[in-house]
Amino acid sequence: MPPKIKKLLSAVYGNLYETYGKIPCPLSHNTPFQLLVAVILSAQCTDKKVNTVTPILFEQYPDSQTMSVASQTDIERIIKPIGLFRMKSKNIIGTAKKIEDDFKGEVPQEMELLITLPGVGRKTANVVLGNAFNIPGFPVDTHVKRIINRIGVLKSNIPEKIEKLVTAHVEKELWTEFSHLLIVHGRNRCKSSKPDCKNCEISDICRKKI
Predict the structure, then answer these.
(1) What fold is seen in the domain 5-24+138-199?
(2) Residue 208 — very low, low, confident or very high, per pLDDT cuts 50/70/90?
């Protein structure tokens, strides 16, 4: 593990923020519940694709009350284009029912409660906390994992380890934004198979040239 991790992560954040600026949540939503559903739907699917089906879904089922009594067959029909539609339909209906039954129709604002919902892990919970409630959260997806490993901060593909390390060395108020920046950089520059190291904005501080 390299020394001065905080300094390295700060430099990465600074360079990426200078490059991309403030990045809004890419998933279209109007309420915390809608964001929660959109994130569940985004598993193994692009945000762009999710944004093509959620307007139709939320027009018919805008909240946990309506979603909790929805027909799984109807939900499957709407979200079929995004893949894994049977499992995702079951999860979002189950999540809606649990929110109605256990949380009085309100999306919980605590990690420990969010991860009790069907289809919700720490990544999804962190997205909701940071973007819906402005509560610091650091979502770790495949792009975040790849870049954190490549810059030499940590050699691990375990999301919890990456989250723990980064949140220990980065100011809380930057966690959500830092995740956004890493994800965008992973999509634009530090790609899995063909990273554009020549033009990379953090190549001078990356400890592992690919």
Answers:
(1) Endonuclease Iii, domain 2 (1.10.1670)
(2) low
